[in-house]
UniProtKB/TrEMBL annotation:
Organism: Nocardiopsis terrae
Name of the featured protein: ABC-2 type transport system ATP-binding protein
Pfam families reported for this sequence: ABC_tran
Subcellular locations according to the entry: Cell membrane
Record domain ABC transporter: where: 25-259
Annotated spans, Disordered: 1-20
PROSITE patterns: ABC_TRANSPORTER_1, ABC_TRANSPORTER_2
Coiled-coil region(s): none
Alphabetically ordered keywords of this record: Antibiotic resistance, ATP-binding, Nucleotide-binding, Transport
Bilayer topology term: Peripheral membrane protein
Length: 324
């Protein structure tokens, strides 16, 4: 899949680049129970080095639970998990230094000043610095990168919600992680902060080969950022692929809209390219305002989640398998 990187140049996903890509994260048959409630019923997922993956799913689907297990913050009930060659339950300090984490919410360190806090967290990574991955990031450079230069001397408790979230992201990347987990990183971001964050994600993936697993409820964001989208529903991954691959999962025609001789027309078709060719053969330059609308990621999301809610998650997953 080719996404649009911040500079406007196309970003080529690691899988499509032809470069050998190492699997850095793998879960198979991952299960999690909270008491008698089974939240994860056999999650299988992988991520390659430098890949950006969006984990989507309805509220309560288990996205945070999955991420916390991969980070080593939560013990799983069953299944195999490996991140950067280690089981997260037994990851040592060296292993932890290679990860970056942005939790959904945390409200400690209110009295610290933003620059001091970032510097403090950064110091943990210094012993793990090596050629090619100098750790930590320079504090002021990173503050500039997340747009907090003016707030650098402010106490955390005086930052706005969006500014606090920018600081969370800075803390997550201060150690130049090889694998970065971001749980709803852009919640509360204004449009400029959101765009800056997207630029940062592309930069980390492209220039530092960082593998990024993020959760979001913003489907446009997922489509823009992710090489691969995973949809978690009913305790399992029911769809796994690029936005284009996922669009092929819903049996919905594309819509072709055009104007000819001053009249607007709408036509649904499973082959929009052929329809457009036929239109031009008939009307030539008489066609104006041509637009083709494919099923959107939102259509796929709603269809898959509704299938799951009808108790059809397993067949949805099987259907996807046939389409890969
Ligand atoms: N510590 C816990 N103890 C008991 N139940 C929990 C615990 N943490 C989460 N749950 C339950 O597990 C389910 C999955 O929660 P989780 O936070 O992983 O979902 P999510 O997909 O991240 O949701 P959201 O999109 O709302 O953030 C929910 O039903 C939640 O109530």
């Amino acid at each position: 899949m080719t996404n649009q990187a911040p500079t406007g140049r196309p970003r080529v996903s690691p899988a499509a680049s032809g470069r050998p890509t190492e699997t850095v994260l793998r879960a198979s048959g991952l299960r999690m129970n909270y008491g008698s409630t089974e939240v994860l019923k056999g999650v299988d997922l992988t991520a390659r080095r430098g890949e950006v993956i969006a984990l989507l799913g309805p509220n309560g689907a288990g996205k945070t639970t999955t991420i916390e297990i991969l980070e080593g913050f939560r013990r799983r009930s069953a299944g195999d998990v490996e991140v950067l060659g280690s089981d997260p339950e037994h990851g040592d300090e060296e292993w932890r230094s290679r990860l970056g984490v942005v939790l959904q919410s945390w409200r400690d360190h209110a009295a610290w000043r933003a620059r001091d806090l970032l510097h403090h967290f950064g110091r943990f990574y210094a012993p793990h610095s090596r050629p090619g991955r100098v750790r930590p990031h320079d504090t002021d450079e990173l503050l500039a990168l997340v747009g907090l230069t003016e707030q650098a001397g402010q106490r955390v408790k005086t930052l706005s919600g969006g500014q606090r979230r920018r600081l969370d992201v800075a803390i997550g990347v201060v150690g130049r992680p090889e694998v970065l987990f971001l749980d709803e990183p852009t919640a509360g971001f204004d449009p400029k902060a959101r765009r800056d964050f997207h630029d940062l994600v592309f930069r980390l993936a492209d220039e530092e080969d960082t593998t990024i697993l993020l959760t979001t409820h913003d489907l446009d964001e997922a489509e823009k950022l992710a090489d691969r989208i995973l949809l978690l529903a009913g305790g399992a991954i029911v769809a796994d692929g690029s936005a284009d691959q996922l669009a092929g999962l819903v049996a919905r025609d594309s819509e072709v809209v055009w104007t000819a001789d001053g009249t607007r027309h709408v036509h649904s078709t499973d082959n929009p390219a052929r329809h457009v060719a036929e239109l031009y053969a008939v009307h030539g330059d008489g066609i104006t305002d041509l637009k083709i609308t494919r099923p959107s990621l939102e259509d796929v999301y709603m269809a898959m989640v509704q299938r799951h809610e009808r108790g059809d998650a397993e067949s949805a997953a099987a259907h996807f398998g046939e389409n890969r």
